[in-house]
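Late entry, written up from scratch paper. The run itself happened at the end of the previous shift, but nothing got recorded in the book at the time, so transcribing now.
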Amino acid sequence: MATIRDVAKLAGVSVATVSRVLNKTGYVNQETKEKVQQAIKMLHYEPNTMAKGLASKKTETLALILPDIANPFFAELGRSVEDVAQTYGYTVVLCNSDNDADKEQKYIQIMKSRYVDGMLFASNTLRTADVVELNKSGIPLVVLDRAPANVPCLVVRSKNNEGAMLAVQHLLDTGCSKIGHLYGPQETATAKERLVGYEEAVRHFPWFSPSLMEPGHFSIRGGMEATERLLARHPDIDGIFAGNDLMALGALKKLRQMGVSVPGDVALVGFDGIDLTVMTEPEITTVAQPIYELGALATRLLIKRIEGTAIDNETYECDVSLVSRGTTGRA
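Output as recorded:
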């Protein structure tokens, strides 16, 4: 593999001159520039991006830190980030934190040492101190959905509260008279806002009780277990709003195992709009987020910041929409 010294030797110039041509810095006359470019072509020389980054502190690399790449929501989010980044000439490094704060801390330090140009976080464990440290280091960041409290951030998210109320209203409109809620980890703003939206929609009904809310941990297994507990306490429930689609998938599986007809006995709505919701029978009604657009918008905003555009720390909220399918399709 050719080195920058090989290029300099073939072109008959110094290493510093080759560096100026590569980095487009300083003056190099046209004849010399052409010699260097010809030598690069003949030797098939490819500059070392990392070494270049160490010198310029710019590597055209973004870090994307996700909590669980096995969740289809984050897989689609990652695809949109990568697609948009590539159109701007950036490479994305994917970091899967497994909802582990220590693992996330290691990723942050590694990415800083590798001079990534910016970071995107879709994280349950991002701390206020992390945001402050990254700001001090001059590393731009955008938070997807889950920003820490008490620190200004650029946030891109969906209207979680509004979506939850939309889900509950749909269940009411289909004739449900007692609706339970499977909720996610309350340390996340996402799960908390969806739970609050559910409460706001149902707390005025005489049948409402806090015991109608059951933790499902944003997972299929969690949704199964929560549904079983919920029906043991309230066998007369005829509607369930699951705070994400994975819990809805678990709820549907458990209801069918228990011999409960969906939607005949219990109607079901999820939240997110992942593709798996159309692979079940019946297909799952869901409140769909514009997942691809969320990732695309966050990436564009981050790159604008990296390239010097002044963007205020504010929250960009994307609309959600109800997708009615078989689990609420009562005649």
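The chain has three domains: 4-47, 56-158+291-319, 160-290+322-328.
(Scratch paper discarded after transcription.)
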